Amino acid sequence: MLLNIEKLIYGGDGLARVSEEDGRKKAVFVPFVLEGEEVEARIVETKRNFARAAVEEIVLPSSERVVPGCCYFERCGGCHYQHTGYEHQLAVKAAILKENLQRIARQELDTELQIHASPPWNYRNRSRLKVVTEPEFALGYYKFNSHQLLPVEQCPISSPLINRAISACWQLGPTSFHGVSEIQFFVNEDDTRLLIELSCARETTKVEAQKAADHLQAAIPHAVGVAAFASGRESTANDGPATDRPTRIGPAVTRDDGPLATAGNAHLDYHVAGQNYRVSAGAFFQVNRHMTQQLLQIVTENESGKTALDLYAGVGLFTCALAKQFEKVVAVESLPISHSDLRYNAPENVKAVRSMAEQYLKNVAGKAQPDLVVLDPPRSGLGESVIHSLVRLGVPRVTYVSCDPATLSRDLSHLKAAGYAVRRAHLVDLFPQTYHLESVFHLVR
Predict the structure, then answer these.
(1) Is residue 42 within 8 Å of residue 395, measured between CB atoms?
(2) Are 238 and 148 in contact (CB under 8 A)?
(3) What is the pLDDT of residue 21?
(4) 126-270 sits in which CATH class?
(5) CA separation (Å) from 77 to 71, 72, 93, 127, 249?
(6) Who contacts 386 (Cβ-Cβ below 8 Å, separation ≥6)?
(7) What is the pLDDT of residue 107?
(8) 334: exposed, middle or buried (C-beta count within 10 Å: 0-12, 13-18, 19+)?
(9) How far is Cα 239 from Cα 31, in angstroms, rounded to an integer?
(10) Cα three-residue angle 441-444-445, rounded to 5 degrees
(11) Catalytic residue check, 403
């Protein structure tokens, strides 16, 4: 089947259309293509309103097409845009963000969308790999659109130290990973220290977990510590290293009960803009080691006042910066591990609250009116309950940090109806080579 690719859409696919017998046009989603290309493809899945296809031949390639920088590209699900240059990736992401705003929020930007580029390779400070020991030892990511393991020996979007750690694991072999189903590496800002997190099968004993933790800390270069956790559920990620950030749930296993075993430290010290952050195993932190400081500046610059509210605060990345600019900051975080780090990292003028954002806003309704609210919600966005509570608070300034343009646009439509207007808009590319994008919108009322 010959398909003409109209555009790239959020999710990484290209959009084509085919005519059905009744004359209607059906959308066909095609991965690893570019707008304007003509491709020979075969349908691999058909639904009532759309179909999915796989490319068999690029008949008419785009002038923007380049040779991918990774030997696993198209087999590994972690990257989606390696077949085009980085400047074009940024243009595609900007177009997708604007299209979502127009289609969902019915909003044209009255201000320029400022685009902030990242170094395109070796930027990730965190990577999570699956581990199997039988019938043969392997570690890697899931294959594209599957739950089959793709063994990998390197990952060009992960930091050099993470790649050294991956190589070291291959040299160790299966005896070092008895009972381990996943291994996650997290490096500090200058890529000199490494924290390792293990997910162990439910039947793994504490003795077995401790043995694995001790062995890996000694064997992996620059490892400050290892924390081994019992898996609460299986990981559902099927697309390689880039999935931890958009879901905003951190690791794919339950962490509330603490680790089965530790060796060395169970946290990593991470420095951003002169501030040291303790980030424990299992806590969320921004994934791009080159762009975290710039994101922090974009979110907090030119903001000051009496009180700021930081919802979805994590370990306090934005909280600590806001504390230097406001008399008081209230930081709300629901994840126990992240909340513990938040309390540790926060200065004295910060009140750290462990709560779901929705519940906290209900509790303070009519009791507080912050000058600024910073929102950094999960991929699912705010939801109507949070938006309605914010509107009732009468907050004059809102800064919305988003990792999903669709839920952002949905939420902005409600905030716009409540009288908020976009003052500044930023696209911060935390995820080069992938379809994921980060945006920051400053709103006033």
Answers:
(1) no
(2) no
(3) 80
(4) mainly beta
(5) 12, 9, 18, 13, 19
(6) 311, 357, 358, 361, 375, 377
(7) 86
(8) middle
(9) 13
(10) 140
(11) yes
The yes or no reply on domain 2-65 and CATH 2.30.30.700 is: no
Of 247, 74, 44, the residue nearest 144 (C-alpha): 74
Which span out of 223-232, 256-265, 431-440 was modeled with the highest average pLDDT?
431-440
Q: Say how many C-beta atoms besides its own lie within 10 A of residue 83's C-beta.
A: 24
Contacts of 56 (CB under 8 A, 6+ apart): 39, 40, 41, 42
Q: Residue range 75-81: average pLDDT?
A: 97
Tokens found for residue 335? 């994840």
What are 62's two structure tokens? 């785009």
| 416 token code pair | 């716009």
150-166 tens-digit pLDDT:
999 999 999 999 999 99
At residue 236, the pLDDT reads: 39
Is 64 noted as a catalytic residue in this protein? no
Same-fold call for 99-118+291-444 versus 126-270: no
Q: Which two tokens stand for residue 136?
A: 């043969």
Q: Is the pLDDT of residue 39 over 80?
A: yes
pLDDT per residue as tens digits for the range 335-371: 999 999 999 999 999 999 999 999 999 998 778 889 9
CA distances from 379 to 155, 158, 344, 402, 437 (A): 24, 22, 26, 7, 11
Token readout for 39 is 């491709």
In whole angstroms, give the CA distance from residue 51 to residue 444.
41
Q: CATH class for domain 99-118+291-444?
A: alpha beta
Query: With bands split at pLDDT 50, 70 and 90, how would you rate the model's confidence at 309?
Result: very high
Q: Which residues pair with 268 in a beta bridge?
A: 279
User: Domain-by-domain residue ranges, the chain?
Assistant: 2-65, 99-118+291-444, 126-270
Cα separation of the two ends of the chain: 51
Distance between CA atoms of residues 393 and 367, nearest Å: 9
pLDDT at 38: 99
φ, ψ (nearest 5 deg) of residue 38 = -115, 125
